[in-house]
Amino acid sequence: MSIFDFSVILYNYSIMLLKMKRRWILFLVLALVAFSGCTDTNTAPAADTPVIKPTPVPIATQAFPVREPSTVYVEIKGTTFIPLELNITNGTTVRWTNLDSVRYVLDVSGSQSPPLNKRDTWNFTFNKTGTYEYNSSSHPSMKHGRIVIE
Q1: Owning domain of residue 14
Q2: What is the mean pLDDT of the chain?
Q3: 113, part of any domain
Q4: Is 59 within a domain?
Q5: Geometric angle at alpha carbon 103, from 101 and 107, rounded to 5°
Q6: What is the pairing mode between strands 106-108 and 81-82?
Q7: Is pLDDT at 63 greater than 70 in this prediction?
Q8: 9 found inside a domain
Q9: Is there a domain that residue 56 lies in?
């Protein structure tokens, strides 16, 4: 037997293995497809199984909302007050927070804040009903904000 004969035998054997491998893969795919339809996807309970339904819990509703003094927040961002207008209750505190890298000084109802650098805050409590405008004295072209106290 020559090397040529040996290489032919080896070649034929490898082709036979490839065909067998393909046949096994084909068989496995066909078996998977055939058995995939054999599962029960019906999730309905059996006729003799009792169905348990939870009892709804009533949600308490409030007839009239009660507005209480609290703290509300105004951000200074992009040379803008956010929100620009507020409607609040007497006794509410407004906290301004500077989110810009520029320094601001606020004028509110005759009171002036200290210089507010980035992330600094300043609080002002409104104790009289009325409409108040506020602005930044360090940025006079900035749009003024408005707070209505009820």
Answers
A1: 1-34
A2: 80
A3: yes
A4: no
A5: 135
A6: unpaired
A7: no
A8: yes
A9: no
Contact criterion met (CB below 8 Å) for 88 and 147: yes
Residues 81 and 143 in one domain: yes
Q: For tokens 């169905």, name the residue.
A: 51
Q: Is the bond leading into 83 cis (omega within 30 degrees of zero)?
A: yes
- Answer yes or no: do 23 and 75 share one domain: no
Residue owning tokens 């082709």? 15
State which H helix or E strand residue 123 sits in.
strand 121-125
Q: Convert the pLDDT of each residue in 93-149 to its tens digit.
A: 999 999 999 999 999 988 999 999 999 999 999 999 999 999 999 998 999 999 999
Domain count, the chain: 2
- Rounded to whole angstroms, what are the CA distances from 3 to 7, 9, 106? 6, 10, 97
pTM for the model stands at 0.55
SS3 content of the chain, % helix, strand, coil (to 5): 25, 30, 50
HSE, side-chain direction, 13 A CA sphere, residue 54: 3
CATH code of the domain covering residue 127: 2.60.40.420
End-to-end alpha-carbon separation of the chain, Å?
109
